[in-house]
What does this fold into?
Amino acid sequence: MRASVLRDGRMVYRDDVPEPVPGPGQVVVAVRCCGICGSDLHFAAHGAEVVALSNQLARGRGAMDLDLDQDVFMGHEFSAEVLEAGPDTATHPPGTLVTSIPVVLSDKGVEPIVFSNTTLGGYAERMLLSARLLLAIPNGLDPRHAALAEPMAVGLHAVNKSGIGAGETALVIGCGPIGISIIASLRVRGVENIVASDFSPKRRELAAKMGAHQTVDPAQGSPFDTVKTRVVFEAVGVPGIIDDIMQRARNGTRVVVAGVCMQPDTVHPFFAIAKELNLQFVNAYTPEEFVEALHAIAEGRIDVAPMITGEVDLAGVGAAFDDLADPGRHCKILVTP
It folds into this structure.
């Protein structure tokens, strides 16, 4: 079977991956589409740090069992077609288009479909999913668009955690895929004034298409100089951003941190204390938010088509990872096995 795997920090094409065999409660699916996520790019560049920090966080309980000297399977933004069910497993009929939160249930417990030496992800022709977690893709939705329910759920979760009201102004700093998903979710929530900030003209243009009422180029001055808001979403994930927001934000601002920074960072708590800021760090989403994001796309309340800026086959995943390093060129590249 064909797949693209992470090896020594690079995505490598293989045509000799063993076929997945479903156990009880599992189904084999043919991957129709898989989005390349920023977390995959982060892991390719900082895999050792991710493993070390995850294991430090786990403190021996549920540590990340991953060997970076072996091939790593990835791909968690997927849509697929049901092929075959495992023993004694009732599920959707073959040919049904589905998606799922990226985990598979097995006799080992819950196995995340994120980074694994053994659990196949969406950068493969076929993979295993759990029958009880499958969601049929509704309304004849394009499988390419259904695959983006996962990143849209991340943005929806950040918006839900912010507690923002329709009459408040939202400032979104960083218009990569997660910033864009936050903007789309804010628009669905009826927020009446959404301001997006990014250095890239193409990303600002995309932010406007996805629902931002105003875009700001930070090279022309800090957005805090012109935008009056007490709700800020940080979607950049580089050192110094949080501290800068804390210094510039208004008293009582709610700062929602969605950007994943892999380097140590320095903040001055004095700024947050003096202004009584609220810092909310967010990660992933709930199953209910995943379902809501899928239906928002299927019902036309979120149009993800503008986000899709490229498509590659499995042999092209490595080059796509390189291309995504240019923020002015791409937002979301889809892998279509």
User: Anything to note?
Assistant: The mean pLDDT is 94. The radius of gyration is 20 Å.
